[in-house]
Amino acid sequence: MRVHHVVAGHVRPRVGVAAVCHVLVVEHPEGLVLVDAGFGTADLVDPTRLGPVGRLLRPDPDPSTSALAAVLALGRSAEDVRHVVLTHLDFDHAGGLSDFPHAVVHTTAEEWAAATVATHAPERLRYRPIQWATSDDVRRYDGEGDEWRHGLRGHEVLPGITLLPLRGHTRGHAVVAVEGEDGVVVHAGDAAFDASSYGARDPRTGEPLGKAPALRAMELAACRQPWRLRPNHQVLRRLAADPEITVVTAHDDRVLPAAT
Ligand SMILES: [Zn+2]
């Protein structure tokens, strides 16, 4: 399966660091599959949909920076996107769902519960139900699932695409593994913000990335279960050390490969 790495939104907070929303567009035999959805075009037109925290992050309003724009740029249509697999439902990952209302959505049962039955005040700020109000078919995966690789377990939601629970950033966060034509791509979502946390290398030069303290500060501020941060980075480090696996993370643009 061919995997395209695209940018579906930029945040430009006044305090903190600018960051991208890195999304995968997978050419799957069942149609296009998105891994994460970034911001939707409706969010960019009307940032009040994102609530008070979302407005502070000041997403770039340019609609050419969305998953939909990326799909159209590949010469495909919104209807070609049949599935969206989410690492989690934070507003900078689930916003694009409103551009693909007919797509089947895949998430962990725990994340769906956190987002829809949230009673914890900070969770009410990070999840915006308006973003998935038009998604009729949401499939939720309960428990740890089947053995995958490197001691991880998960749910194969489509042939070659596995949702691997890795809680911490949110209660039901997962990473998503895609069997691509050039090896396995693991989208780590927000399990790490700074890709140097798991020993990532610059895809152009092969050099190890330097520490990005501003991204780490943002990670700590947004993390629901901070005690899981370091163990999760260790898991990603194990995956990244496997020559068959490429690990990317949502917000560190240094791991974005050149346009594909
Ligand atoms: Zn995020």
TrEMBL record:
Gene3D superfamilies: Ribonuclease Z/Hydroxyacylglutathione hydrolase-like. Its cofactor is Zn(2+). SUPFAM superfamilies: Metallo-hydrolase/oxidoreductase. It comes from the Bacteria. Pfam families: Lactamase_B. Keywords: Hydrolase, Metal-binding, Zinc. Residues 20-233 form the Metallo-beta-lactamase domain. Belongs to the metallo-beta-lactamase superfamily. This is MBL fold metallo-hydrolase.
